[in-house]
Specification:
Oligomer: single chain
Number of helices: 4
Order of helices and strands: HHHEEHEEEEEEEE
Length: about 230
């Protein structure tokens, strides 16, 4: 995802940022099992271990960004009586707010990245649905539940918590049908992108058999299989 972000936005390097405890991004990943990404959208080049303020002033001068620094000026302050006191320096928020004339391009590129991420979402479908008449009004129904998305059906962290809605697959037999073998409702383990899980049941009786699978974070796939 980092490579994709750099490719789309043209951003270089990595921002010097810190995540705060309890932030939404980490909560969404660790507690809710969602893929979660964060970016400040704009930053200036800086070298680790060196003054970030000096790097910003160098960047501002090179890119002709004016009015970001207030000259140090001596003032009298009641809390520091008899001492030399100065105010000045880099203006508040100047180091984190992008120049106004870059906003349009930043919004466009980051919007494109968001759309690209959304297109990678997990998406489930049924494949290889087969029915076999086993005689005595018994039918074997088999199918695959396939994730045709790029992302897995939940983040790996989601397998380890109780908040993530694990996928389920369920049968709704017709009133003239009954399940001979297999579970009516069962949980589906995490599916990676382009991965499938296979299921099979024995059904007694002809008619429509409805199959539903999915979860809040994957969407729902529904199909009706006619047994005859």
């Amino acid at each position: 995802m980092s490579d994709k972000y750099h490719e789309i936005t043209g951003a270089k390097g990595a921002p010097l940022t810190k995540t705060t405890p309890g932030n939404f991004m980490e909560w969404a990943y660790y507690h809710y099992g969602r893929y979660s990404f964060s970016t400040p959208a704009w930053w200036f080049p800086a070298e680790r271990g060196k003054s970030i303020e000096a790097a910003f002033l160098k960047f501002a001068e090179k890119n002709k960004i004016n009015n970001v620094f207030v000259p140090w000026t001596e003032v009298k302050h009641p809390d520091f009586a008899g001492k030399k006191t100065e105010v000045g320096g880099i203006k508040p928020f100047a180091m984190i707010n992008p120049p106004a004339d870059t906003l349009g391009d930043l919004i466009s590129k980051n919007y494109k990245f968001i759309i690209t991420v959304a297109e990678m979402h997990p998406e489930i479908e049924f494949l290889d649905i087969t029915t076999e008449n086993a005689g005595e009004n018994i039918f074997r129904v088999s199918l695959k539940l396939h994730n045709k998305g790029i992302f897995a059906t939940c983040a790996e962290a989601g397998d380890k918590n109780t908040w993530t809605r694990i996928m389920r697959i369920s049968l709704e037999p017709d009133k003239e049908q009954s399940i001979v073998s297999g579970l009516k409702v069962q949980r589906v383990a995490r599916l990676e992108g382009d991965q499938s899980a296979e299921f099979s049941w024995l059904i007694n009786g002809k008619g429509p058999l409805k199959v539903t699978a999915g979860a809040l974070n994957t969407g729902t796939a529904i199909t009706t299989i006619e047994l005859k």
